[in-house]
Amino acid sequence: MSVNLKRYLESESVKTSAPCRIDMGGTLDISTFYYPLRHLNPSTFNIAIDLRTHVRLLPYDAPVVKVSSTGFADAEYPVDSAPFDHPMGLIFAIAAYFQAEGVHIRIDSTSPPRSGLGGSSVAAVALIAAFSNVLTRIGVSRQLYRREIAILAHALEESVAGVPCGLQDQLAAAYGGINAWRWHGRVKEAVFEKDAIFRKSALQDFENHLLLAYCGIPHESKNINQSWVKAFISGNNRDRWAEIIHCTQKFTDALKRQDIQDAVEAMNRETLIRKEMTPEVMDVTADRLADAAREEGCGARFTGAGGGGCMWALGQTAHIDRLRDVWEKILTERQDARLLDVKIDSDGLLYSCR
């Protein structure tokens, strides 16, 4: 039975937001990988960054769901017949899960569209939190915890994507901070555990070791992830994924010791392995950015599954300062390409009502 939210939202709109992320070791958060590789203790690493996706629920006169999102045409459908293969199909799938109608969903992102920073997963986390908040206030259900929101966002995304999806983007959005996520694949409890790499007090200093660039071309991670999954299922590249696990472990251990140079070496090795498996994971601009990073003694990696979107770099502060000038010059040669601010987000999911 559908729940018409118009009357409640007329007196109190609901706003939520969640951060995007930069990452390393991705794909290992897909169950296709972490179950058979659990003996190697797979993990992924991500940093929540203060490029937030904001979701607002507003009243809507018609008994439908309307969605407005930056970069897409507005769309509205009855909740029971909304298409999940629509460009905003995940948003409609979430509305269908909660059987919500009489609502206008507004999504505003501060990150570039399809930038490889986990934007669709972030929007899903923020929207689920918003619906859970409203339904709790009107007595229909209880407020979901962060862990529950992340798991539900992943399940719904995977159900409409038609391909296996990872979970680390939703976790970064829900929790914020700098974390390694351990994918132990246990049956009687959550398949992951959170390992905080830095205390909150150390996050601001660590920002000086980071650089983030949008390469000017939207990414298409679905095809790259599909190729990795298909090859893995066929028995190919298993040794390379084992090495990627080792690189990610070495990377996070180095950061815990504050050994930036060891982390840089592990980061560059992981990027090289993926580039050897899938050359299209990085285009010409991304290759130039990565080459420049190595020349300046820094590490560089694409975000998400690559294929366009963003590149991020790690290094000693002096090296990053030099690299910033080099990257800025490279990025001026492509329209829309630019450096993005890197502010680490320690809050994760946030709510507000008014």
Automatic annotation (TrEMBL):
Task: Kindly state a single biological-process term from the GO annotations of this entry.
Answer: galactose metabolic process
Q: Does the keyword Kinase apply?
A: yes
The protein's GO terms of the molecular function aspect are: ATP binding; galactokinase activity
Q: Which domain of life is it from?
A: Bacteria
Q: Which residues form the GHMP kinase N-terminal domain?
A: 94-177
Where is each GHMP kinase C-terminal domain found? 253-328
Q: What is this protein called?
A: GHMP kinase
Q: Quick check: keyword Glycoprotein in the entry?
A: no
Tell me the InterPro entries matching this sequence.
GHMP_kinase_C_dom, GHMP_kinase_C_sf, GHMP_kinase_N_dom, Ribosomal_Su5_D2-typ_SF
